[in-house]
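ok trying this again, last paste got cut off
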Amino acid sequence: MAVSLGYQNVYRYPEGYPEWLERGYPVVTANILVPAAAPANSVPVPSGYYLILILAAVCVGGMALNLTPCIYPLIPITLSYFGGRSESLQHGKALHGIFYILGLALTNSTLGVIAALTGGLVGSVLQSSVVLVGISAILLLFALSLFGIWEIRLPARFNALASRTYGGYGGSLFMGLTLGIIAAPCIGPFVVGLLSWIAAIGKIWFGFTVFFVLSVGMGLPLFVLAMFSSNIDRLPRSGEWLIWVKKLMGWILLAMAVYFIRPLLPELYGVILFSLAAAAAGIHLGWLEESSTQAPAFKGFRKIVGIGCLAGALFVSGSYYTRGPGVNWISSSDRVDRILEQARKEEKPVIIDFSAAWCAPCRELDETTFRHPRVLEMSKQIVMIKIDLTSGADPAHKELLKRFQVKGVPTVLFLDGEGRERGDLRLVDYLNPDEFLTSMKQIL
């Protein structure tokens, strides 16, 4: 191969499909850019200032992940756990916070490396109904605790052990290790590109470092909460209004329990359950909860929160009942080979959507982009295939994931009329209708 200063997409051919190779076109393109003269498996490891810039960007991206829903349950849990620490010295609190985010980072970076090595989906642990029910039950128990229905009280002997320096630090580390499992699914869409890049580099230490820095960035805001958690009781006019805040956190945990259990329910039941939870939270926090200060400003704020929750309930239910028709997907995974072959013969482009019910960006794509009138109209000229990975038990699905090098959901592939994937168009996160239309036009 002649040496070139340009870049090209690396084509990956699946094993067991020699007939595709004989026809002279690639089956799958991995969205990785390498020098044209370099082999596909020789992507260099970043070094020097370039490596520092990459890790800094990854850290900032980790901080941005705090805006995702999986992080919300960690906020009240962090406040509750660190607010009760007995250390009077600031450095003691800081060390506990450091051990806490180290636990989070170790869990997420380990899961990320496993996903990179095995080619499994990020967040695929949520394919199990047992895991979903277990997470929802844990969040529900925490919510009931914040509502004051029950309270954990350890025996005096265990409290004495926990107050020791090493035991206390070990407890903070274990807390982070455990809660990292709850946060792990939210890193999925963000790290799909990172996974492909790390897999091309092929260095385990580099993959662990990238995921570790990503997780540290995600844990930094929680570290700040841990530092100032004991100061919450010293805020101005502290007293009964803190009970209202505690119950607000309880409703957030309850909403997250519903969020994790929704994939196991029919879509309509999930919408009804979520709307009822939001409405109940609004009525309780806005008008029924009496353990708050009588200051006019706070009473007004409380009603604003209540009205906001009621408006959210109306919006969720209204959006479901007023939405228009969606894309007419072909959903049978065992016929994908025949469908792709027929589309190639007819020179028709193909879009393949890998999604799952537990994937928030996937649901956003379904509810907005794939129901947009212009997307719906243009989809009639394209073969539209949807692969539902919610259960993760179909062997045909696993074969498709391996063939197309899919590392996470959502992943949307765009194949032209000759059956070749446009790697530059591969989608691994939510895309609004206008941008999605631009990608559709490029394969038509």
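PB: full thing came through this time. The CA atoms of residues 28 and 247 lie 51 Å apart.
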